[in-house]
């Protein structure tokens, strides 16, 4: 007969065994072999990680695991795996890993990008949707057209430093959508520069190994006197918080005497409804500005590069524009008659997605997929570069070809039935960019205006040899990649171009 001690021991062993066999076993998809303890750490490049992950996808498939010093990360490299896990299972794959320096210290988890999924994020997405849904964005059409004309006027006056001009155009339109008012004044220019600097700081801090605290989290407990980086980060937060609050107050007061009312002024009455605090509203607007300007300006620069490398595409697009608008500038009323221009915008974002790596998700529960078990807490990276170059959805993915988005009737194709959208650059699931409607509108109008106004020609060196941009040369700007600076010539297509532009 069993003693009491033996009976209890047997019961405990049985319970442990039952638990072990009843819970899903962690069976992650295989990936590149690594070193003991370190895993794949030494194989990961300091820059342009998206290219290394894409290289591994060609060996290990669209679903594989990397080991970063014991931390397991599942990489999704196709539209199918991304849609299956990040869209269809978004209820348990919308978490975020800890960004200690960028998210917790610099931003106090007030930016969408780093915010854990939960009640706070849902509230802020509600109010952002109110200001940037498809219908709400129609209110921004007039000044988006004005800023596109201002961009052409700026290039016509001086075609130098094109990347800066494109970023400025994105900043001007985004600024007006958020904070109301006329086009940028000299005083506003300084504020825009400061928001831009804030974006550079936050995005830089989000890069792997930028700060040791993201590798050794316990360092966050260090007192400020022993951690100068922490003291600097906390001071940066409070300085930026004060600045964003100032912008919020200005935006709320601009309701009269302006040609439109922006996001802050129009949604201010809803702050109380959705229980959004002043601080949350200030950082939401600031975060939208950071994300929109950085990505839109970089995308427009890639558009120019594509027109230089694929002149036949530019000529085709111009024929469509000339047929529809003739000698006048394009407007949003022309968009339905310009499907090829919409396709050019979509193809630019597919060909060179500027948020190439995306932002990691985290599984909030165990997941079973394709016979594998992905345990709770595992990071999921939807490598946007690989997804946008998935040959199953985009044949000949390295080729720049807007016609892939045009159907047999000459219309813009509907999004793929197995994927949430044909613009994969905006992310997936409940983490999709909330400002994508506004961004699409702005880039369509800027692209249409530039194609209407300019011919794109390769620059030449002192020997008359054409200088061809290197389409595979990138620059890291935190989580965003830019095209390396390239030469090019934008020639006015009309002698009276300046006179045809609407009055500034």
From TrEMBL:
Gene Ontology molecular function: heme binding; iron ion binding; monooxygenase activity; oxidoreductase activity, acting on paired donors, with incorporation or reduction of molecular oxygen
Keyword Iron attributed: yes
Residue positions binding heme: 433
Family: Belongs to the cytochrome P450 family.
InterPro entries tied to this protein: Cyt_P450, Cyt_P450_E_grp-I, Cyt_P450_sf, Cytochrome_P450_fung
Source organism of this protein record: Calocera viscosa (strain TUFC12733)
Protein name: Cytochrome P450
Entry keywords, A to Z: Heme, Iron, Metal-binding, Monooxygenase, Oxidoreductase
Pathway note: Secondary metabolite biosynthesis
Co-factor requirement: heme
Transport is among the record's keywords: no
């Amino acid at each position: 007969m069993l003693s009491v001690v033996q009976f209890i021991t047997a019961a405990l062993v049985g319970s442990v065994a039952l638990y072990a066999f009843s819970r899903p076993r962690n069976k992650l998809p295989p990936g590149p072999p690594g070193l003991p303890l370190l895993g794949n750490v030494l194989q990961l490049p300091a820059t342009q990680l998206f290219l290394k992950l894409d290289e591994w996808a060609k060996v290990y498939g669209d679903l594989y695991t990397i080991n970063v010093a014991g931390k397991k990360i599942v990489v999704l490299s196709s539209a199918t795996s991304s849609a299956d896990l990040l869209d269809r299972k978004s209820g348990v794959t919308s978490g975020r890993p800890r960004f200690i320096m960028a998210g917790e210290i610099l931003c106090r988890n007030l930016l969408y990008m780093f915010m854990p999924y939960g009640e706070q994020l849902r509230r802020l997405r509600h109010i952002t949707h109110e200001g940037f849904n498809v219908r709400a964005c129609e209110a921004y059409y007039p000044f988006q057209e004005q800023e596109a004309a201002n961009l052409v006027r700026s290039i016509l006056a001086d075609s130098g430093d094109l990347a800066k001009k494109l970023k400025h155009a994105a900043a001007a339109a985004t600024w007006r959508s958020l904070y109301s008012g006329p086009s940028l004044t000299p005083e506003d220019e300084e504020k825009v520069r400061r928001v831009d600097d804030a974006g550079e700081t936050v995005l830089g801090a989000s890069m792997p190994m930028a700060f040791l605290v993201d590798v050794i989290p316990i360092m966050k407990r260090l007192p400020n006197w022993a951690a100068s980086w922490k003291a600097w980060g906390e001071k940066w937060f409070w300085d930026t918080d004060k600045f964003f609050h100032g912008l919020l107050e200005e935006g709320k007061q601009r309701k009269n005497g302006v040609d439109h009312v922006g996001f802050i002024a129009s949604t201010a009455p809803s702050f109380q409804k959705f229980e959004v605090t002043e601080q949350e509203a200030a950082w939401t607007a600031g975060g939208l500005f950071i994300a929109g300007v950085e990505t839109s300006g970089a995308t427009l620069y890639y558009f120019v590069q594509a027109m230089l490398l694929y002149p036949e595409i530019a000529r085709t697009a111009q024929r469509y524009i000339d047929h529809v608008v003739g000698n006048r500038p394009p407007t949003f009323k022309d968009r339905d008659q310009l499907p090829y221009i919409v396709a050019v915008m979509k193809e630019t974002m597919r060909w060179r997605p500027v948020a190439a790596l995306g932002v990691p998700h985290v599984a909030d529960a165990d997941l079973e997929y394709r016979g594998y078990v992905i345990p709770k807490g595992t990071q999921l990276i939807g490598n946007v570069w690989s997804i946008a170059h998935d040959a199953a959805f985009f044949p000949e993915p390295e080729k720049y070809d807007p016609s892939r988005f045009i159907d047999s009737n000459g219309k813009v194709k509907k999004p793929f039935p197995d994927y949430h959208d044909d613009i994969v650059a905006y992310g997936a699931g409940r983490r999709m960019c909330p400002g994508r409607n506004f961004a699409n509108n702005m880039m369509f109008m800027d692209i249409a205006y530039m194609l209407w106004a300019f011919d794109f020609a390769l620059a030449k060196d002192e020997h008359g040899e054409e200088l061809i941009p290197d389409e595979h040369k990138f620059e890291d700007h935190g989580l965003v990649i830019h095209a390396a600076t390239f030469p090019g010539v934008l020639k006015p297509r009309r002698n009276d171009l300046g006179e045809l532009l609407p009055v500034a």
